[in-house]
Amino acid sequence: MTILKVLASYPGGFASLADVKRDVAILVTSGREWSERTTKLAARLPGLEIFAQGLVERRDGGWRITDAGRAALDVMEKPAAPEVSPAQVAAPEPSPAIPHPASLVVAGPDRRRMERRRRRRRPTRQRRTANAF
């Protein structure tokens, strides 16, 4: 995240490796505020790999941010949607009445669970054996 910000601040998005190291060192040691900010922003794009994802490319002794890198930076810096409390959420409109069939067909895991319950509820029949009398 910090490297993307540093590269985006240079004209053409290119900076020498020495410039990148210097600027990153300044930002990282500038205080807790920068660290907390970058942590929050980076959480918006987990698993960020600037070289593997083509966000930064190596060139002639330096690095350059790509268009994909600028787009990723924009996504991370985009203001978060305001949190909405449950009281602010309007109740959904009731759907029109749909007639229910007499027998409800249950599919998937619930169907299997219901069948297992039904089998357990059936009384087991005692088999008569010749030795029982």
Explain this structure to me?
The chain is mainly α. It has a domain at 2-77. The chain contains five helices and three strands; from the N terminus they run αβααββαα. It has helices spanning 2-8, 17-28, 32-42, 67-77, 109-121, and strands spanning 14-16, 56-59, 62-65. Strands 1-3-2 form a three-stranded antiparallel β-sheet. A hairpin with a 2-residue loop joins strand 2 (56-59) and strand 3. Helix 1 packs across helix 2 (17-28). The N and C termini lie far apart (84 Å). 9% of the residues are buried. Mean pLDDT is 75; it is low at 100-107.
Cα-atom Rg, whole angstroms? 31 Å
Instruction: Indicate the proportion of strand residues.
Output: 5-15%
Regions with little confidence, pLDDT below 50 for 5+ residues: 100-107
Helix content: 40-55%
Major β-sheet annotation: 3 strands, antiparallel
- Walk across the major sheet and give the strand order: 1-3-2
- Please provide the count of β strands: 3
Shape: elongated
Order of helices and strands: HEHHEEHH
What's the pLDDT, averaged over the residues? 75
Distance between the termini: 84 Å
Number of helices: 5
